[in-house]
Write a structure and sequence with these properties.
mainly alpha; 227 residues
């Protein structure tokens, strides 16, 4: 599998897939609509506050990877975006409805248990019971063109193991199932992802402050000239 997504790219792809399924009349999405989808407070983990400049940079990177297409609609100057990640005439990845629901939920919310996935995919696909969720997860782990999902070691005190997508890197190396070292690896990966997101947010804030300083600089010069 050659696809490698940053945390922001995973959020953009997941948001486009979700909106294609849940609000097809509003799909593809404008930059403003995509920013709202990425930053919405429901069904997202973590909740982000990305500005349109950051979304645009992320989308541009995905366009270069041929994972997103941008097109100006007939009679409109607004550019709209659709994913080419899977289930399109342009891409090689093909998922069933249930497989796509799980992949989308993992892209939007990170590692989850089968029970959480059944809840969080309710608007994307239909699972009649937990066995169907687990069977779909197994398919995603065992596909010949994959794997696309990995099972994380069960954390101490937890009844269920969580599952993660593999579009942003491999799963932590496993030692003794359920051991403390495995739990540490899983927690360490979560911390790294969170740090990447925080660094991205700090870079975004620095860029915003830079733009604000550029905007204020001419006024300061003009004020000094008048004095």
């Amino acid at each position: 599998m050659d696809i490698s997504l940053t945390p922001y790219e995973a959020r953009v792809i997941g948001s486009l897939i979700e909106k294609e399924i849940t609000t097809p009349d509003q799909y593809p999405l404008s930059l403003n609509a995509l920013a709202s989808a990425c930053n919405q407070k429901s069904n997202r983990e973590p909740v982000l506050e990305l500005d349109e400049a950051t979304i645009q940079q992320t989308v541009d990177a995905l366009v270069k990877k041929a994972l997103v297409s941008d097109k100006t609609g007939y009679g409109s100057r607004t550019t709209k975006y659709r994913h080419r990640f899977c289930n399109t005439e342009f891409g090689l990845l093909k998922f069933s409805e249930r497989e796509l629901g799980i992949v989308c939920a993992l892209l939007l919310r990170g590692p989850q248990t089968p029970g959480e996935l059944r809840t969080h995919t309710s608007r994307l696909c239909q699972f009649n019971d937990m066995e169907e969720v687990e069977a779909t997860l197994m398919q995603l782990m065992e596909r010949s063109d994959g794997p696309f999902v990995a099972k994380l070691p069960r954390e101490p005190g937890k009844r269920e193991s969580r599952y993660m997508h593999l579009f942003s890197g491999d799963a932590p190396a496993q030692g003794t199932p359920g051991g403390a070292d495995d739990a540490l690896d899983g927690a360490e990966r979560e911390r790294l992802v969170e740090l990447e997101l925080r660094v991205g947010e700090l870079e975004q804030e620095v860029a915003r402050l830079g733009r604000e300083l550029e905007r204020l600089a001419p006024k300061a010069v003009a004020g000094g000239t008048e004095a």
